[in-house]
Amino acid sequence: MFNEEILMKKIFLLTALLCSAVAQAATTLESVQQRGVLNCGASAGLPGFSQADNNGAWSGIDVDLCRGIAAAIFNDASKVKFFPLNAKTRFSALQSSEIDLLSRNTTWTVGRDSALNLDFGGVTYYDGQGFIVRKKSKVTSAKKLAGAAICTETGTTTEQNLADYFRANQLKYKVVTFDKNDEALAAYEAGRCDSYTTDRSGLAGLRTKLKNPDDHIVLPEVISKEPLAAAVRHGDNQWGDIVRWTLWTMLTAEELGLNAANIDAAKSSTNPEVRRFVGAEGELGKGLGLPADFAVRIIKAVGNYGEFYERNLGEKTPLKLARGLNNLWNKGGLQYAPPMR
């Protein structure tokens, strides 16, 4: 429940204080370099974001962000170990240093940013919470879910958003919670709930797992803001910068028209902005503790943000999610990278 998350804040804060009291021999970057692999916390299975197939191959935008970071550090995007985590265990895994970063459809909130002692690495996906229902229910609006039983995953912002929405609209409902989204979805499909709620991108992905996806619709209401971002432990500014600038490198590449296919040719460009980007001029990588060509490594490994998005979430995938708010700022969206200079 949301209250459980509040109660856990003291535990997380105590863990952080204990960790800070112990002198660490290495920064996160140094630890990753010495280990030779990046430990990345991911979802236990959310199509388009992070999931492993039957052969153990991982895919999704959260997965590709980790691969981009590994490419920047090692020049090898495969040097990542993924840890599948549910909503309850994700923060403790990060605070205990079991993982180096959490890249798992996690909403950036003031409580998590402050009380949980986390830092967030830029918004990878702008989202909002919604509801899925069976077409045969004839429900066309969330405001017609009065008295409904609604399934969701525990330990998330989803529960509070759900409570806030129904309270604001003076509607009664029954919440049925589960530790994993797959469990919640299965309960919904089995008829234990009238609706299932999570981020709308998650609904698009999880809908593909239903036996008959076309028998279900996502209602039009968006009841919250859900800026999804990777999280790191507070206090290691260099590591936070590396995570942020990996994302912003992909966004900048799309703005500049650079992609996985033409990034090598860009090394001979006469455009000063492009030359700084590829490391031919300046020292952009130095302050990050990365080589001069870190941006080239990232784009060769995972592409620019547009490639990253379309490969995992776009119109040619089962999710068929339009860019919308996740388009570049100069194309009507919210995605905006600070200048690389």
Could you characterize the architecture of this molecule?
This protein has twelve helices and twelve strands. The strands form four sheets. Strands 9-8-10-7-11 form a five-stranded mixed β-sheet, with helices on both faces. Strands 4-1-5 form a three-stranded parallel β-sheet. The longest helix is centred in the first third of the chain and has 20 residues, at 2-21. The chain is globular, with a radius of gyration of 21 Å. α3 (61-74) packs across α9. It is 37% helix and 18% strand. Mean pLDDT is 92; it is low at 17-24. α6 links the parallel β8 and β9. By secondary structure, it is an alpha/beta fold. The termini are far apart. It has helices at 2-21, 28-35, 61-74, 90-95, 110-114, 157-168, 181-189, 200-207, 237-256, 272-278, 294-302, 305-312; strands at residues 38-43, 51-52, 58-59, 80-85, 101-102, 118-127, 129-134, 149-153, 174-178, 195-199, 216-218, 226-233.
